[in-house]
Amino acid sequence: MTQSREVKRIPTALEPLKPKLKELWETGSIDLEEFLSQRRIAIVGTRNLDQRQTAAATVLAEQLAESGWAIVSGLALGTDQAAHRGCLRVGRPTAAVIASGFDRLAISARPLAKQIQANGLLLSEAKPDQRIERWRLVNRNRIIAGLSEAVIVFQSGCDGGTIYTVRDAWRLGRRVYSTSDSAAGRILLEEPARRLPELLKNFQLTIAERKLLGDRPLAQPLKDLNWLL
């Protein structure tokens, strides 16, 4: 994948990220500055969607995109790719944050990545020739949260990578919405936020951060998204 460039200045929205974002690479039809000038929302969730769930995730992204929102996700199979495709269908820009360099994309992601490169933005903190590594899969979730004004959890298991995005969204003060069709979704909607570190494997916080969690659920139901549409 050619014509990648290093982002010259880390934008304000990404400055609070932990660990600190030291470099960021981009490729696409728009640059990061232009993308951040739009309203942005993330749609994240499991890789394992059935046909009905895939269609629902795609329609959700379409509806949000038609209402003026740019979609952020991670280009993984399942929820991520459905969200990107829904946005592209209505001609709105989408941003995909990936865990490898652009030249090391997984084969399954390459066709959609080319579409996004032509009609959106690809981002990575890995240099173009760097391979995917587990720690990068975790760390890219904070970028997804940082780029977004709100995060939607479409489907997720209690130990899924999506929970990292939820945790980072909470750290950054972003709104979190969720469906109730998955185990993690029900926990996010029903359980007191203070219980999340014990109920969700990847929602791990410092002792100081835990003290900030309250008795109200962290997420709001998807029906409350009406204010966005």
Quick summary of this structure?
The chain contains 9 helices and 9 strands. It has 229 residues and is an alpha/beta fold. The chain starts with a strand and ends in an 8-residue tail after the last strand.
Describe the structure.
By secondary structure, the chain is of the alpha/beta class. The protein has a single domain (5-228), classed as Rossmann fold (3-Layer(aba) Sandwich), CATH 3.40.50. It is 35% helix and 16% strand. It has 9 helices and 9 strands. The protein has helices spanning 32-35, 51-66, 79-89, 110-119, 134-147, 162-171, 183-190, 196-199, 207-210, and strands at 5-6, 25-28, 39-44, 69-73, 94-97, 120-124, 150-153, 175-178, 220-221. Strands 1-2-6-5-4-3-7-8-9 form a 9-stranded mixed sheet, with helices on both faces. Helix 2 (51-66) packs across helix 3 (79-89) and helix 3 (79-89) runs parallel beside helix 4. The longest helix has 16 residues, at 51-66. It is globular, with a radius of gyration of 16 Å. It starts with a strand and ends in an 8-residue tail after the last strand. The model has no long low-confidence stretch (mean pLDDT 95).
